[in-house]
Fold this sequence. Notes:
Number of strands: 9
Mean pLDDT: 85
Order of helices and strands: EHHEEHHEHEHEEHEEHH
Number of helices: 9
Catalytic activity: a uridine in tRNA + S-adenosyl-L-methionine = a 3-[(3S)-3-amino-3-carboxypropyl]uridine in tRNA + S-methyl-5'-thioadenosine + H(+)
Domain DTW: 116-340
EC number: 2.5.1.25
Enzyme class: transferase
Keywords: S-adenosyl-L-methionine, Transferase, tRNA processing
Amino acid sequence: MAALGSVQEGEEEIATCQEESGVLEGPMVSLSEWQGWGTDSPLPATVVAAIKEMMDLEREFGDKMKFGGVGSKIKGNLKVIDDKKKRSVYAKLSDPEQKLQYFTAQQVACRLVGSRGYLCQKCWLPKEDCMCSRIVPCNLLHGIRFWLYMHPKDFLRQNNTGKLLWQLFGNQAATMCVFGIPEQEEIMWDAFKSAGKDTIWLLYPNVNSSPKSVGDINLDRSFSEENKEKPLNFVLLDGTWSNSSAMYRRLKERWVTIWGEEDLPCVSLSSLGASVMHKLRPQPAWDRTCTAAAAAGLLSELDLHEEFRGLGLDKQADAIEDSLDILLDALTARRRRMGRSITRKERHNNCI
């Protein structure tokens, strides 16, 4: 089964420090800027509050924040002050939900402000390495919708592969939902409640009492244009393997609250080869792969079923694989230009 893990912490191209890139140098993040990164959701209130906190810190100390490294972390003179303030606020929060939302907002805010003018909004690569012109968009079958449930530490990561799905298929067919952003999570759950629990499947290693495969999905339905309002919803956990456990628990808690059932419907893939991205970022075990490769594997297995025959899922799976090749090429070229290794040390070889 594919675990939808992304890279381990630190396995990302290191952004050069954005010198003198203070938060006050640009306007507050607008709705259009927020949505330009790959979402149709409203601008999160918690993220706006986090950016305002950074602006206030700059005003108070008369200094500019600098950003750089993995996750566009704050650098320079204000780093220690900012870190102490955030730790103090976090420690005073007693509600776990408030803690999660605060953590997520801080992660997303730093990435938004620190990536301004540096990353391409569509492919999340440095602008000099933009690969957008090589990606060929296509339509996903009307009766299928992907939900990219993304950990905030994967938001705007250059080697994230979940972003490829909405680059290819558009936001309505592959929708990003960041773990701990309430505006996006409500959009996702409202869609689930409207479509019905029988249309929702989480692509995740089987942890239920009754393991499921693609063959167990109810396909007794029409996949015509008329039925696109109630598609099959496939949730992909877009984050490191360790982070995906927390995301799974959050999904399960909400599932129990809404439908009163303990088992969140999880589906595993019967066969899955190593993704091309394995060359740059090996996964911790043979049955875990990157998010986009798992999505391609799901479409390929669905294509084997008579109900999907001739509907083009094989071509849509190929489009994902092609986009992974393009991303790998772009990241490899960047590493070579920076004089960095283009291979990663294998981990947990005993699992293979």
